[in-house]
Structures are given as structure tokens and as C-alpha cells.
Amino acid sequence: MMKGNWKKKVHSYLGIFIATLMILFSISGIILNHKSLVSSYGISRKYLPSKFEYKQWNNSLIRADIKIAEDSILLYGNTGVFLYNNGHYTEFNKGFPKGVANRQIRSIVKNKDNQVYALNSKKLYKLNKDIWEECSPKFRGKFSDMLIKGDSLVILGRSNIYVNHHNTWEKIELRAADNYDNKVSLFRTIWFLHSGELFGKTGKYIVDFIAIILIIVSLSGIIYFISKKSIKKINNKRLLSGVMIKSVKLHNKLSKTFFILMLIVCVSGCFLRPPLLLSIIWGRVPAIPLSKMDNTNPWNGLLRNFKYDNQLKDWLLYTENGYYSFKDLHSIPKQLNKYPPTSIMGINAWQRDKEGRWLIGSFSGLYTWDRTKNECKDFFTDKLVISNTASPFGKKAITGIINNIGNKIEVVEYENGSNFDHMPEEFKYLDMSLWEFFLDCHTGRIFSFLGTIQIFYIFISGLIIVIVLLTGFKIRLNARKKKRHNN
Q1: By the 8 A CB rule, do 75 and 67 touch?
Q2: How far apart are CA 229 and CA 24, in angstroms?
Q3: Burial, 4: exposed, middle or buried (Cβ in 10 Å; 0-12, 13-18, 19+)?
Q4: Would you tell me which of 30, 63, 237, 384 could form a disulfide with 400, CB atoms 3.0–4.6 Å apart?
Q5: CA angle (210 as vertex; 344, 432 as ends), nearest 5
């Protein structure tokens, strides 16, 4: 008897344990798939666990600063722009669309005519007195970075470069790199498979539909479990029995019909966080035909940060595949063999120091990069770095660099922030974007009480869901075999 019942017990008790989280995964996943629907909304950090409060410029509040006038400095990051003037800090976001998600600034630059531009992932803005006015190029796609070179404003998109020279925009597709292998990132392929984006809007809608199915399957399972446990205590057993039968029929029918798709969504999600993430992060595979990854542009979705090196007279480019250099925007990019260790989550700070060395900060730490000597050093210890390899999180997770306030370069850390100046108390509870809130719900980061276990939250939850799905499939398979045998 025990041999035949263990699958049912595992399915039942693990299922009731994970059902609520499955509903949370599904609802948050649908919202994450449609960022534009919630981009105008935020939630005050006073309603969130204390680790989400801003303390001394932490939690990516500040990315960098720029001096726009003798007495005015702009600081910017994930919550927008702040003006530092006469010792006071004030929000400086007039003209940006409503919502924190629309104020996550990637770069702010000033040209020789003292015109100031700000860039987020979708739009370009120009400062007119104290109001930001949109002046985006007429090209579709996301933006990553921006700089001024001579008379030109140059924007790095996720896939192309856009150059504005004398108010005329030019779109440039970079040539394939010297190490181009005509393959794509395995990590990005699985990521887009999980969201459905791999097959465009149709794929996203299919995954949304599967999320709704998972919600119904979870709710019907909860109803069946509670009804079964309560039937002995309820007088109207016929009514409760009817509820049980209907809920279990719905549960079984949906689980049987969409088993493969539910399994694909859940397993792919497990690979997007440690420890399974480490097995795919550097993997490269041929692009799936007709998918989002199947693109003739060799840099499709890969571009992240860039600079122009005035010392060596070449461009530096950081991508998901590493660092590259090229003499001009029409040259073949060459992959660099020596560069600072950089977290797989990308660069958060990239500036020059007083000696002319590059400073590059990420969640892996902060490093100096002297290209003339072809050497990299740890910024804090001044020790020479031998290997380019970086862990996702170092001892100091860097989110920004401040060099216009005070007499020295000030580093901003993710958890500890920075002491370049006292952060105004009113910034403590600035809104978190609703989309980011649901992202933290989806990844489990919102459950701060989990501590260090939180990093394995997705893997553990996903493993339980997969076990529940597989045991449910096995139970139905055994029931079908038994029915055929009896017939």
C-alpha cells in the first residue's frame, strides 16, 4: 500500500506547500512580461522590508555625477536625477514620464555648447532650463550608454550605435568581431524561452497563458486538498463532494493537457539562478531558427557600455561576450585579452581617474585599468590582477562612482552606499518601481528573512515544482494503466 501511495503523498503535500508560491510566480511573471503596463506606478519603500530602504545612497540610488555649472552637479541612477546646489540635494526629474521605471538613467553628458542630455533605456532627453524634453532618435530598440565625441552625440543601443552630427541621426551596425562564431548566448536563449520572448509577442502571450493555467491548477489543487480534509467535518457532504470532483477533474485535465509546456517554463526558470546558472552562463549555441536570437546582426542584444580612449585613439566596447576595441565605428572590433574582472551582471561604473587610468566597477569590485601598461589592479588593495575571471559578487559590489563632490573619488557600494555626503532623510522612502517590486517577488529577493538561502530560492522552489509536476504525471499514468488493465 505504501509503495503505491508515496507518489500521491509527495504530490499532495509538496503541492499544497508550493501552490501559493506558484501563484506568486505566475502573477509576477505575467506582469514582468508587460513592463509598459506598470511602468507609471511605484510603491513606497516604507512598505517594504528595511533592506530596501535607501541608506547613504545605497541600492543603486546613485550611478554617477556630472558638473553642469560652477555651482550645480547632477547625480543620477535608478531612481532618476538629483541636483546638488549650494549644499542641498533636490529631485530633478521634471519632464520625465511618471513612474520610477521611466527615470532609470543610464548616462548624462554635456557637450561643448553646454547642452545637457540624459539617457534611459528607451528615450533621450535634453535639458531646457530645469525641464527634461524628449529628443529621441527615430529608431526602435533599447539604449545602453551615451557619450560625446567631438561635435557628435553618440548613443550605444543594445544592438546598434546611433550618431547625431549637426542634428542628423545615423544608425551604424558594427561589423562582426574578429572572434565571431555565429553563435548566441545559451543563457539569453533560456532566459527568452522562459519569458516566451524568444518567439516575440506570440511567445510571451503563450507563456502568459501557461501562467494562468498554473494559477488555476494551483487553486484547484488547494480546493481539492482542503475539501478532502474537511469532508468528515461538514454536514453537507454531497455539496463538498461535488466541489472535490469538479476541482480534481479540472486540475487533472489542465495538468495533462499542458504538462510539457508547464515543465518547460519551470525548468527554464531554474537555470536562470544559481547553482544551475553557472552551467549555462558562458555557453554558446546556434540560434534557434525564426526566434528572436536568429538575427543577421552579430551584435543583436549584446551591447552594454562604451568609451572613447583619447590616449590610444580607439573605441572600447563592453558586451555580454567581453571587451572589444576598434579604431573607428566601421572597423572590425577585436576582442581584448586583458581587462578588469567584471561581473556577469555588467558594468555599473566606468570613468577615468586623475592618472588617466580607467576605473571600472561592477558587482565583482572596482579595478583600475592601465591600457598603456596592459595591467589591471584592485582599486582598494592596489594588487595586480592576473586573471580576467570574476565572481558574480565580490567583497565590494560597486554601483557607482562620484568624482565631483569632495576632493577625491568616492565609491558607491550596493549595500553600504557611500559617505561622500549625508543623504537627505526624505530620500529614504523614495518609490520602487512596481515592475522592480514584482521582479523581486518573482526571484524571491523580497523575502529578506531568508538571508543567504535566498540565492537558492529559485532553484529550491523550481525543484519542488518539477517534483510535483512529475509525480502528478506519474499518478495519472498509473491510473490510466490500471483502468486499461481492469477493462
Answers
A1: no
A2: 24
A3: exposed
A4: 63
A5: 50
Q: Which three cell numbers stand for residue 195?
A: 519569458
Residue identified by cell 548613443 is 155
Residue 67 in grid coordinates = 558638473
Percentage helix, strand, coil for the chain under 3-state DSSP, each rounded to 5: 35, 25, 40
> With the CA atoms of 375, 380, 381 and 384 taken in that order, what torsion angle do they form, in degrees rounded to the nearest 10?
-10
Torsion-angle region of residue 200: left (phi > 0), alpha (psi -120 to 50) or beta?
Answer: left
Q: Which three cell numbers stand for residue 365?
A: 569590485
Instruction: Report residue 206 CA to chain centroid gap.
Output: 21
Over the stretch 49-100, which tens digit does the pLDDT of each residue have?
A: 999 999 999 999 999 999 999 999 999 999 999 999 989 999 999 999 999 9
Distance CA 319, CA 322 (A): 5
Q: How many CB atoms lie within 10 A of CB 291?
A: 17
* Domains, the chain, ordered by start: 1-51+181-297+463-487 (no CATH), 52-176+302-436 (2.130.10.10)
Burial of residue 228 (number of CB atoms within 10 Å: 0-12, 13-18, 19+): middle
- Cα(470)–Cα(180) distance, integer angstroms: 40
Work out the burial of residue 248: count CB atoms within 10 Å of its CB; fewer than 13 is exposed, 13-18 middle, 19 or more buried.
Answer: middle
Whether 199 and 17 have beta carbons less than 8 Å apart is answered as: no
Q: What is the pLDDT of residues 239-283, one digit of tens each?
A: 667 778 889 899 999 999 999 999 999 999 999 999 999 999 989
Distance CA 417, CA 54 (A): 9
Enter the C-alpha cell of residue 231: 469532508
Portion of the chain with pLDDT greater than 70, in percent:
97
pLDDT at 447: 94
Question: Rounded to the nearest 10 degrees, what angle do helices 2-32 and 434-443 cross at?
Answer: 160
pTM score above 0.85: yes
Give the count of beta carbons closer than 10 Å to the beta carbon of residue 280: 17
